């Protein structure tokens, strides 16, 4: 009996975690093909450290992860899904057959406001570092960290605000730092207890929160 053919479209955290879990759970009963436009995977959650000269986000080789878990890597992206024939078409025009398909292509971050510093990850670390230099040099006496409305992941805003306050305090500076958020409470999506603790940390650093 041939192995169940699984195609995973997406080489981000969801796609890679699914690959690893599926191999551990199903073993050789499945054949796995990972479709990823990137050959590298970076843990974006750690990218908030880079503007502060802290350890950089680690970069992983997607091909090595696939090899370690017996999966085939296709350096390509998903173009179309054909449910009737259980096939997909890739951006390069290749057709792949599947028994099960997991689409984990993730979201594409984009600036929510014009004329502001947007932090989406590693690609914006240099811009955030420039903002820090303005604070350290005394050219910026106030900074607002804004959580945009709509679908968003607000955690990095709070991390950046807290680390900026910590850096300023270490230099004997006291800029006014404000977090503006449409949430009912800071990081309310994590529950009341977590939100209260975050609010306490913000207060300890003198960070103003406007909801």
TrEMBL record:
Which keywords does this Swiss-Prot/TrEMBL entry list? FAD, Flavoprotein, Oxidoreductase
What's an example GO BP annotation here?
aerobic electron transport chain
Q: Using the record for this protein, list the coiled-coil segments as residue ranges, or answer none.
A: none
Q: Which Pfam families match?
A: Pyr_redox_2 (PF07992)
FAD/NAD(P)-binding domain: which residues? 5-211
SUPFAM superfamilies according to UniProt = FAD/NAD(P)-binding domain
The record's annotation in Gene3D superfamilies points to: 3.50.50.100
Q: Which GO terms describe its molecular function?
A: NAD(P)H dehydrogenase (quinone) activity
Cofactor(s) in the UniProt record: FAD
Q: Is Flavoprotein set as a keyword in this record?
A: yes
Q: Which InterPro entries match?
A: FAD/NAD-bd_sf (IPR036188), FAD/NAD-binding_dom (IPR023753), NADH-Q_oxidoreductase (IPR051169)
Q: Which family is annotated?
A: Belongs to the NADH dehydrogenase family.
- Name of this chain's protein: FAD/NAD(P)-binding domain-containing protein
Please name the source species.
uncultured Solirubrobacteraceae bacterium
Q: What is the lineage of its organism?
A: Bacteria, Bacillati, Actinomycetota, Thermoleophilia, Solirubrobacterales
């Amino acid at each position: 009996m041939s192995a169940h053919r699984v195609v995973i479209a997406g080489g981000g955290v969801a796609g890679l975690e699914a690959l690893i879990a599926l191999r551990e759970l199903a073993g050789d009963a499945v054949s796995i093909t990972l479709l990823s436009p990137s050959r590298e995977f970076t843990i974006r959650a750690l990218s908030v450290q880079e503007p502060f000269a802290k350890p950089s986000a680690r970069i992983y080789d997607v091909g090595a992860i696939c090899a370690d878990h017996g999966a085939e890597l296709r350096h390509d992206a998903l173009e179309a899904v054909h449910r009737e024939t259980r096939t997909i078409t890739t951006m390069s025009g290749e057709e792949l057959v599947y028994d099960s398909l997991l689409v984990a292509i993730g979201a594409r971050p984009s600036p929510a406001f014009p004329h502001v510093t947007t932090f989406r990850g590693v690609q914006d670390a240099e811009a955030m570092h420039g903002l820090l230099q303005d604070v350290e040099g005394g050219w910026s006496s106030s900074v607002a960290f804004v959580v945009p409305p709509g679908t968003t992941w607000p955690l990095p805003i709070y991390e950046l605000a807290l680390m900026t306050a910590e850096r300023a305090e270490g230099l004997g500076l006291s800029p006014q730092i404000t977090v503006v958020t449409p949430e009912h409470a800071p990081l309310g999506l994590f529950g009341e207890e977590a939100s209260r603790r975050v609010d306490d940390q913000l207060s300890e650093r003198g960070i103003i929160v406007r909801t």
